[in-house]
Amino acid sequence: MPFIPHTHADTESMLTTLGIESINDLFDEIPADIQCDGLPDLRDGISEMAMQRHMSEKAHIDETGICFLGAGCYDHYIPAAVWDLTSRGEFLTAYTPYQAEASQGTLQLVYEFQTMLASLTAMDVANASVYDGASALAEAILMAVRINRKSKSRRVMVPSTLHPTYLATVESIVSHQGISVESLPAEDGVTPMLKAKLDNAVAVVLQQPNFFGLLEDADTLTEHAHAAGALVIGVVNPMTLALLKPPGEWGDNGADIVCGDGQPLGIPMASGGPSFGFLCTRMAHVRQLPGRIAGRTQDKDGNDGFVLTLQAREQHIRRAKATSNICTNQGLLVTAATIYMTLLGRQGLKEVATACVRNTHQLVDRLTTLPNIEKRFTGHYFHECVLDFPESTVELQQRMLKQGILAGHPMTGMFDEGDRAMLVCATEARTAQDIESYVQALADG
Amino acid sequence: MADTIFDKSRPNRRATAQRVDDDAVEGLLPRNQLRGSPPLLPEVSELQAVRHFTNLARKNFSIDTHFYPLGSCTMKYNPRGVHRAAMQDGFLKRHPLTPSSHSQGVLGCLYELQEILQDVTGTSEVCLAPMAGAQGELTGALMIKAYHADHNDDERDEIIVPTAAHGTNPATASMAGLIAKEVEVDSEGDVDLDSLKRVVGRKTAGVMLTNPSTCAVFERRIQAISDIVHDAGGLLYYDGANLNAILGRARPGDMQFDVLHLNLHKTFATPHGGGGPGAGPVGANERLAPYLPTPMVMKSDQGYQWLEQTERPKSIGRLSAFMGNVGILLRAYAYSLMLGGNGLCRVSEYATLNANYLMKRLSDAGFHPAYPDRRATHEFAISLRREAKETGVTAMDFAKRLLDYGFHAPTTYFPLLIPECF
After folding, report:
1. Interface confidence (ipTM) of the complex
2. Superfamily, domain A66-77+345-444
3. Is the peptide bond prior to B295 cis by the omega test (within 30 degrees of 0)?
4. What average pLDDT does the segment B93-97 reach?
5. Is the CB of B177 less than 8 angstroms away from the CB of A176?
6. A80-338 architecture in CATH?
């Protein structure tokens, strides 16, 4: 009985107290014709040792090699202390911090997290997380429509340079509230000024750097969107904000809502989840922000403490009128990210961002010296770049995997001749030797 | 004053756990795109950071340190072995876009978990993508909507929920563009069938039910409810919040539910993490399975592969950038391997024994169960209305006093229809 403490004597004594013969009696309110007799199709349980052996075999199969794949999930180094501390039982096995007296650790940590995220994005407030970057964008769009009621419009303009699965997620979630998502075309991999397109739009989404790794002209796009009466929703990689102008400073007045995925902040790639989505906004819009928010307050004796605040936005109070149905969020990943940001500090995060930029530029410089490999776009890129290869990149990727290199993300279906394009990425975790291995493997064919 | 991490920060102090010593992007990025002033991230040493977060951890209640007699949230031991099994390099360092040819390990685990959950729930297909119970609920509501749209039944825009339902149920209905209609619960904690008959009709898209219900009793008339809703052309959604109480005793599929979600962070022992992450896989019968979200995992001659939108044209689509909370799914899979079918059945038996025993002991001590003539399930509600009236000591006072004794407070004032409950 893996985790059940009851001895036979315990069970007998409890049944006696209850005045019944058998545990089965406790299920006598379930109508007989819907009762089932156990779970006979499932195998019997196994020991922890046997389970570990099985899981290790499975994990070992998936060890591929050196990762040059990004596209929304990145191979960064995570200092040992991050998950040593995050895995402490008091963080790992704590409940949602509804009881403030029993949750001061989690609540203070969330407050510190919100402070860090608000500062990174140069916004006023952040929430305690949503599921991931893609669902955060869906929530940001729903939020923008609630905020910008005077627009009367339900058209949201989304650049074609946005991460494609973010777009797919947005469409699954927001279309049911009568919101239409319309595409802004790209030129040379970035979103050009299209004033006419922005007329009668409730919000404009802007991903920086965009899916192709390129820098958009965020200042000008923000100005045009605001001039057209639309809100600006920034989708950002928080790591890049150690170097890049934060969305709160785009244009004259900054973005109105900022969201993204926190994976680069100390979260393992782990097949893409769990990670966490973050949402930041201006104080004027805080009541439209979904999810939990921690605040700092004082008790009746004047002692500082932390609590969940503005709960009248949430489903457990407002039910059908809540800002979102979200309840469980990604709290443990927020714990990891807060510890990561603390250990790196402002200087460490800037160094990571800088190394990502330099390594990717070095990779691209080396690859484009090989025959018939070229950059697809001309603009400035951060730590990802689309390259055109002389062959199918799906096949190229398989060939490189045999040499222990995960070469990048094939852009099949994204543009004309996209089957020869690949998005490559080199984070701070890639060494000069790793980059030479890539070049060598490619040259060896 | 609370000592936040920012109070410990000093200019130019730093930890070197992640030091790259690379500080120049001259010429690589345009100057007008760069940040002017640095973000206010703390500047502390590694030991300061470790002490700060260790001390914060010590201020928390947790399963590892305290008992959580918490209804509606199934707080159980989170096995250490399961955590370690999921924290292996092969799983942690796998990029989500790695081709399936080089992902047979994780895909195999996920495929087997889909099959285990199908058996446990009595459904024909399971999708693991939803990232928490509330996203599972949204998935179910969108699938119900898609089913009716597919059958040109466009008038059905109402979802029926019991007055005692969890707040996510009506919030989900709104998010799916549906209108939540409430149905009454009777004095024994069952759905009032007359009230149900009054609200069902040609506008009914479906009904969302938890069973055992949020009143902590088994919904005995579930077959009658199912007939009333199905006869009216509606569908049944099962909220799996309380599945832990009936593993191997009654399966939602056998109760005629069309679609359901499970909370793996409840029934399958994955950690709550101070608020998340969870995982909310969704299962469906044959009628609704074509509408399940993507991606799912399929098995073919070439091994395990992702099933994407192109192969599931009726799917409601994607809910996350990648494949939901895979790390949590792996933990649930490892837990189910350790317990097996026999172990999962024991979970419900002993959870139910414990809850009934505690209810009996509290009754003997003079407290009042909300439904004294009913069995407890894996939880029960007591009403402190009399104590509040006679002494002025409310359910909240009892809850907070329990904290003083080292017990996490029970869920208080939920469901709202039971006065002064927990």
Report:
1. 0.97
2. Aspartate Aminotransferase, domain 1 (3.90.1150.10)
3. yes
4. 97
5. yes
6. 3-Layer(aba) Sandwich (3.40)
